[in-house]
Amino acid sequence: MKKVLLFLGMLAVSATQAQMSITKSDGTPVSNGQVFSFNSLEYEDAYFGFLVHNNSAQTITARIECVDVINGTGAGMELCFGDVCLASVSPGHAYPSTAVAIAPGGTNSQFDHFLNTTPNNGGITDYVFKFYMEDAMGDPVGNNVTVIYRYDPNGLSTTAFNTTSTGAVVKSSVVENNLEIKASKNVQMELFDVNGKSVNRQNLVAGDHNIDVSHLSAGIYILSFNTDSNQKSSVKIIKK
Q1: pTM score, two decimals?
Q2: N or C: which end of the chain has fewer CB within 10 A?
Q3: What is the CATH classification number for the domain harbouring 72?
């Protein structure tokens, strides 16, 4: 009996020591309580990609709670985390219903994100989200990180997700046969479909490039860039 209690105690200690941190999808650290403002409903400008990092030696399970929606209902707030992509959220609810398991030293999918698609009443809307870990019983454990996604149609956007940080310029996000890219420095390019499957991966040197995508099915793709210094960026591509 003592051994069982000792084992359970060790599990409890290890669970409370499990730590996570949050960054934007480009690797920029996210602080607890940080506010991210967006003044657009367009995909490229309103997209907030995030990564949950497991900094511990044990697998963690994480969820995101919608703590509050101020001046809004939660309808039109897209939340994708793990295998779930929702078109709306509700205050007091946590997502997904089954926590996302993240391996030691690992992260969640690079396609997970927040995206507001509704203007509400035209004023400022704050979506308050809390990232937290839970134990095998579903109880919160360890540290948590709260972020505020703010839609302010008359404000200045403080978060932009584009390709300029990696020195890559995509000439058009709507393509038919060729994807035209101008790289100002060496960069790795990778194209993903909406299921996260890599459909094209190339190392580009500085210069102009025409990538043949004529064989791909029409639809939405995510084009990602990564430099040798680990700078990352991504953009949505529409294949006609």
Answers
A1: 0.63
A2: N
A3: 2.60.40.10
Instruction: State the pLDDT confidence band at 170, using cuts at 50, 70 and 90.
Output: confident
CA separation, residue 64 to residues 58, 134, 221 (Å): 20, 11, 25
With contact defined as beta carbons under 8 Å apart, do 2 and 41 qualify?
no
Domain final position from 151, 176, 201? 151
74 & 103 share domain: yes
The pLDDT of residue 20: 95
Q: Does the pLDDT value for residue 74 go beyond 50?
A: yes
Residue in the structure block whose two tokens are 């040197």: 205
Q: Are 171 and 215 in a shared domain?
A: yes
pLDDT at 162: 46
Distance CA 186, CA 106 (A): 26
- Cα–Cα distance, 99 to 131 (Å, whole number): 11
Name which residue leads in pLDDT, 2 or 208: 208
Report if residue 159 sits inside a domain: no
Q: Note down the domain range covering 116.
A: 20-151
Residues 6+ apart with CB under 8 A from 82: 96, 98, 100, 108, 109, 112
| 100 token code pair | 């996302």
Q: Domain boundary residue among 127, 151, 175?
A: 151
Q: Tokens 């499990």, residue? A: 18
The number of distinct structural domains making up the chain is 2
Residue 199: Cβ within 10 Å count: 15
